[in-house]
């Protein structure tokens, strides 16, 4: 499901002393099935941007086309948009509210008007997709789960809607390294299985470099860079200039290069860095 954004502008507290231009003429296209990483400082406009993509916010001006439908058109109902575009906020577990995990995950599909048998199938698939045991957990209160299980259950509730576009805003925030890795693997597996379009907002440059096919870099309400991870991180000096970090693997390779080692500096992932270091050791 392609997304096209044209001249999107959003202003907070317009015509007041606190007026802020949060989005400043945003233009971007995202192709069906893309895995897009969105990076930028706090206040760069990332969260404001993604909230426009499922109709939570309305722009001052501009157009957003989801599968050729202009979702900024006042005639378009929010429910129609959210059938297609799912949004997982930071700390989504705070939005759990039902008596049981089953009922919580089923809430969205039921609101789509699906038959009970289809709702059950979706709930079971979604719970299993996030790595939870359906039979063990379905009748438990979501408030009795561990922190990591709550996060997974909340994500399952969005997955069960089967959105063609899934947006995740810092989905690993607050998790320990093990939980962080597991959530990212769930997202990666889901993308492979569902072949949906995913937008991942993250401050973790290593995650973005490893998972994303395309990166959008935002700064002061503008998109300042777009491209593949290789294309974006080729502008390493600019990335650092605007105060963003580089993937840890790339930083390591740049340090080794500065110390006179013959290594490639356009390395994106830890696996690639490991291969470079092994080759370096073998060549000695």
Summarize the structure.
With 284 residues, the protein is an alpha/beta fold. It has 12 helices and 10 strands.
Task: Tell me what you see in this structure.
The chain contains 12 helices and 10 strands. It has 284 residues and is of the alpha/beta class. It has 2 domains: 3-245, P-loop containing nucleotide triphosphate hydrolases (Rossmann fold, 3-Layer(aba) Sandwich), CATH 3.40.50; 247-284, no CATH class. The model has no long low-confidence stretch (mean pLDDT 91).
Present the secondary structure layout.
Elements: E1 3-12, E2 20-30, E3 35-39, H1 46-53, E4 61-66, E5 69-70, H2 78-84, E6 85-88, H3 101-111, H4 116-129, H5 134-137, H6 147-159, E7 165-169, H7 177-194, E8 197-201, H8 205-211, E9 214-219, E10 222-227, H9 229-233, H10 236-241, H11 248-258, H12 270-282
Helix pairs in contact: 3-4, 3-6, 4-6
């Amino acid at each position: 499901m392609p997304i096209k954004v044209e001249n999107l502008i959003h202003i907070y507290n317009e015509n007041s002393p606190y007026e802020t231009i949060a989005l400043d003429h945003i233009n971007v296209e995202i192709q069906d099935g893309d895995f897009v990483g969105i990076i930028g400082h706090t206040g760069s406009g990332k969260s404001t941007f993604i909230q426009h993509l499922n109709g939570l916010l309305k722009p001052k001006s501009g157009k957003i086309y989801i599968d050729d439908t202009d979702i900024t058109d006042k005639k378009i109902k929010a429910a129609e948009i959210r059938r297609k575009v799912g949004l997982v906020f930071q700390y989504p577990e705070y939005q759990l509210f039902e008596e049981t995990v089953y009922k919580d995950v089923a809430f969205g599909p039921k609101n789509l008007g699906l038959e009970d048998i289809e709702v059950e199938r979706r709930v079971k698939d979604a719970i299993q997709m996030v790595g939870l045991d359906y039979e063990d957990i379905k009748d438990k209160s979501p408030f009795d789960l561990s922190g990591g299980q709550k996060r997974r259950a909340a994500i399952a509730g969005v997955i069960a809607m089967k959105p063609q576009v899934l947006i995740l805003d810092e989905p690993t925030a607050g998790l320990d390294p093990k939980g962080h890795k597991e959530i990212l693997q769930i997202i990666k597996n889901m993308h492979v299985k569902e072949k949906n379009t995913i937008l991942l907002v993250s401050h973790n440059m290593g995650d973005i470099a490893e998972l994303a096919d395309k990166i959008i870099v935002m700064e002061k309400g503008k998109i300042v860079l777009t491209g593949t991870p290789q294309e974006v991180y080729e502008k390493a000096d600019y990335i650092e200039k605007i105060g963003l970090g580089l993937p840890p693997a790339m930083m390591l390779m740049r340090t080794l290069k500065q110390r006179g080692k013959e290594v490639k500096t356009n390395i994106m992932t830890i696996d690639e860095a490991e291969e470079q270091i092994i080759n370096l050791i073998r060549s000695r």
